[in-house]
DNA sequence: AATGAATGAGAGTTCATTCAT
DNA sequence: AATGAATGAACTCTCATTCAT
């Protein structure tokens, strides 16, 4: 019943900055749970403990709200990723491992963020779709950078070009995303463990490719 | 432009079987382009060249329509996959390669089918969500089966258990899905080529894991 | 599977007359259960074992179908009523009793008919509404006639005029209709018994009015 | 015709309480005129001078709207009835007379309310049907109570049991309802007058039954 | 005599968005 | 800073009705 104090928890006369974050917090949850279209501004406002007009005052539109979510969560992910990768230290494979590890940890801990970033289907407006694409590209670039650096140093070879790194990054991120689902079915698995398994599965292959040991399907004609 | 004649080709008085397939054809396209919620039955009906009530007469509801799409495309994918894998012949790695190859070919050729199957966000009703989950599980099981068979034979070892196979299957499908996006940015790449690259990246790693050559991040403490 | 014979029960190649009655039979049931608007021609056609176009071919429209039901059931009721009243024989009160008795028996046995005749709310089109009103008026006229005849003879008095008879008829039919509901809550009660009770409640009052013994609320002013 | 000013009387920015009543007012009219199914929320909204979403915001659904109407009108009727019956004072027949009088007055004055309460056909959903049944039962209970009290006191006899009272109540309410129609054809008749006539018709009969003067159809066998 | 295929029109319902306070 | 009141537009779904065979 107190109106001005801090007793109420979160209500009345909160400065804009703070309110905005509250709204985005809730919105990420709801967008993740329902998807962009099925999410309703009504629900978000109610869960945020404010009225709808506030949402529009601060975030302009449903689209604006979603974009704000997207940006914030993308930033968070990139930050987590970079921090870990840099802290990973010397050897390139260690850096890649640290990066992937951070990635899994982030996704495991902030499922909603990841869902908002990556699992929004093609149902979005032009503006949003391109923002999502941007966010994805940013993540890819991080991973690709890691791969590139790492491998370029690791083997003497420089046969790995931009395209290759991008290819590997896509494969890694896709695998990681999918393993996110696998993790929900295996609650015992730590992000650390999953990272390790994935590293084992791909790292050698990446290196081996560079060394020229290319596998080719033997003794069989084109399946077409 | 003729209205009552036979000139129009696809119009009036089409038997149910055929119409149903027409509707599903269109629906897959639209669901893929817009996502479940953003897709409107109106648009589907119009593109199918019929009126809305026909859609409801034959498919019962938007949900029923989506489920029909889901089932048909899942069947198609599994069929394509199985056919190729069996045709792949003797060596396990060849079979896996053939399966993956079929997978990429399918996804590349029937993008819409794949999007409907795999890219529907969490915005779905209970019934649909579980149908989607079923479809995904079916695909996973195919891949996991291939991996399992293959590797079990390949190395003498039987250290690969159910969980491992499932892990690998998730990683592979995720990577493949993501590489699907990569392919749209690199139109020159054939599904064949992508398959080969992925195989190279992964196959050796899978084998190596079995042989006990496990990579572990050296000389570094827990990043936490 | 026999097509032309009588084996199938009711199907294929039934002459128009018969089909029409089948349809009306079903329609009365459905209209009674659902009400005019909530009843769907689809359901009626299906229950009648034929296709919708037949319904339209024979009865023209939903409205036409309902009118046909209305007419047939009204005729049936009037017939049952008249027959009984005439068979009731000499004394006027016996004739009234016999008429009411027939009425209750009919309503108890053909609930659907009565519901269609009397319980269709005001939700009907002009045409139908007036047909329903006609049917109701016909029933009222029967009862009013009975009352009139009866009482006119019974007492020497002729103080009962048209209006009075109509008043009594309305009261009687209304009471009877309502007692129909009461009967569903008391399954043990026979139509005969209900008739007797109602007669007892009303007959004397009717006579007494004629004899001038008019009751007037004593010693109290108008509540207005 | 002014749009934004205060001239319009009933428009923009009305507090919820008031709007709700306005909506229910209109809804009662429309439901009475058209019946539940034929009534359209569109029409109700338009007549209420608001947009459809307001109706749904305040009353949840068409069903909810109808239930609200039902409850309010039932309350009104019961209130009118009780008030009058209590004010009727001492003698039981006076109380019954007063009650019936109030009933007729209410029905004559609030035809729509009564139609909504009593004339909705069987076309309703489970929830509504039972609400209607409840409302009807409440009215019946009122009348039955009056009858019971009254007669129990009036004659020394206690031969009237629950069932009898209920029987009489049904007959009375049914008669009254039907006389409602009769009244529309005889505009000169006041509710007072109708009540008096009905009382004369039934009161004596009720008493006589108690005194044992039971009428039985003489000298005739079962009409069957 | 009979029907599968097809639709125009309209119902209830919801949502993102704004206005007035 | 904040909100109760209000709506245009769109969506899913149903129904009486007809056409072509």
Automatic annotation (TrEMBL), chains A, B, C, D:
Family annotation (InterPro entries): DesT_TetR_C, Homeodomain-like_sf, HTH-type_TetR-like_transc_reg, HTH_TetR, Tet_transcr_reg_TetR-rel_C_sf
Parts of the chain that traverse the membrane: none
DNA-binding region per UniProt: 40-59
Database matches in SUPFAM superfamilies: Homeodomain-like, Tetracyclin repressor-like, C-terminal domain
Domain HTH tetR-type: 17-77
Key words of the record: DNA-binding, Transcription, Transcription regulation
Pfam families to which the protein is assigned, alphabetical: TetR_C_46, TetR_N
Protein name in the entry: TetR/AcrR family transcriptional regulator
